[in-house]
Amino acid sequence: MPGGLEFDVLATTGSSVSKVRNVHGTALKVAVRAAPERGKANDEILEVLADFFCVPRGNVAILSGETSRNKRVRIAGLSIDTALARIKTLS
Q: Whole-model pTM?
């Protein structure tokens, strides 16, 4: 799929709610309910990002950091303008 963005994610697990929280430095801070075991938290992070940016789940992938809080993510088919508009909705 043409276009897309790569960016850093700072993940927090064991949260009471799963959502994109805010921007932390140059990373998007994402909290999920799932524990970091057997890929559950990573799957939930991908779901949260897909919902937040209104893209199909299959367009979102973790490029690096699968076992770390610091991840590099790619979202195919997402423009910078759309991403920035969504990020501006965070408070």
A: 0.92
Between the alpha carbon of residue 79 and those of residues 2, 14, 30, 59, 85, the distances in Å are 10, 30, 20, 13, 10
Q: What count of Cα atoms within 13 Å lies in the side-chain half-sphere of residue 52?
A: 26
Element of type H or E holding 15: none
Q: Please give the structure tokens belonging to residue 63.
A: 């490029």
- Report the alpha-carbon distance of residue 63 to residue 14 in Å, rounded: 22
User: Which domain does 65 fall in, by range?
Assistant: 4-87
CATH number of the domain that residue 10 is part of: 3.30.1200.10
The whole-angstrom separation of Cα 19 and Cα 50 is 11
Task: Provide the domain count of the chain.
Answer: 1
By CB atoms closer than 10 A (0-12, 13-18, 19+), residue 74 is middle
**Does residue 27 carry a pLDDT above 80?**
yes
